[in-house]
Amino acid sequence: MDLRPASARPGEQQVTTADAFRDVYGTGPDGTWAAPGRVNLIGEHTDYNDGFVMPFALPHTAIASVARRDDGLLRLHSGQAEGGVVEVRLDGEPAKGWAAYPAGVVWALRDAGHAVGGADIHYDSTVPTGAGLSSSAALEIVTALALNDLYDLGLQRWQLARLCQRAENVYVGAPTGIMDQTASACCTAGHALYLDTRDLSQHQIPFDLAARGLRLLVVDTQVKHAHSEGEYGKRRRGCEDAAAALGVDALRDVPYEGLDEALARLEDEEQRRLVRHVVTEDQRVERVVALLEADDVRAIGPVLTEGHTSLRDDFRVSCPELDLVVATANDAGALGARMTGGGFGGSAIILVDDASADKIADAVTAAFASGGFREPRVFVAVPSAGAVRLE
Ligand code: ADP
Ligand code: MG
User: Fold this and answer.
1) What spacing in Å lies between the alpha carbon of 15 and ligand 2's midpoint?
2) What is the average per-residue pLDDT within 299-304?
3) Which of 52, 140, 228, 250 has the highest Cβ tally under 10 A?
């Protein structure tokens, strides 16, 4: 199996994106920007509970070549979308389909009082879509960063992330947390981003796997179960209801030491399961941070697997494909594994020793074949840079 870091071709992609912009619009762009997808190491379904997360950026990026225009027109084109150029009038009907993501960013900027007059944009992305690797946040952040520069808005990265989250929540209508956009905007190479989603305070935690003889494999199961969005909303509401029942602002306010007492106060079994996951998951983030700071990277493996068990049994957002990745990888000698992202399909991560990476990847692929599942895509995740202007 070829486990080279896939799709890490920003240099090449940057040139072709600017060229493609010329082909589409007939003139050159004002500049080209890139924003990555992400993998979440630990801290799942905590970001809408004011809790902790720990994503890192992938080498896979959305690249945008952009020209400013000031006539109230937004023109959008993507190398990954059918249907040619989408035109959106900023004072007209909202955009639909994929164009809602970038149009939502322009809407959020303008709604916050920033004078954005329009743009021509061509996108080219190597972030797999719908794989739980945040292609949507990459698309939003690359748009926001470009407009921030071209319109001299002076916004900081965490502010761009907030506006992009608002675009996705309100304009697109997906009730996601703040993790994905912050990861794409704020991650740095060789680090995982320890983020407090309540006050958005951040710490870059060194996460250099190669130096420790380790690798993190991403397994994109290539499945997305149809009910994922509805189930996400249900979990989110369930967490809010449980917080209300416990009299706290958010589940983050239930301390790990007070978990048993909190569970005893809840009558609803479903709420108990949600609370148990969120509270133990926040504690797992803290444990992973402590282990990484102590330079004991190998020891995070079991914590990842514990997180998967909690997502599978308590939060119930896993699926047979993700469970198969985790069980197969651990049986084949992985240090640990878990689903990553929202769940119901998408991707899983596996922490492995260099020497066993191929064997474990092959075992997962073979298990998928004999289970009758679609062949998964497996690649090595190298903690990479956040969003950047390329030219
Ligand atoms: P994820 O963020 O996990 O990849 P989402 O469902 O949140 O999954 O976002 C995927 C959607 O984002 C796609 O269906 C599409 O509408 C949009 N999208 C992402 N990247 C691109 C792209 N390069 N071109 C056009 N649309 C894109
Ligand atoms: Mg997304």
Assistant:
1) 26
2) 98
3) 140
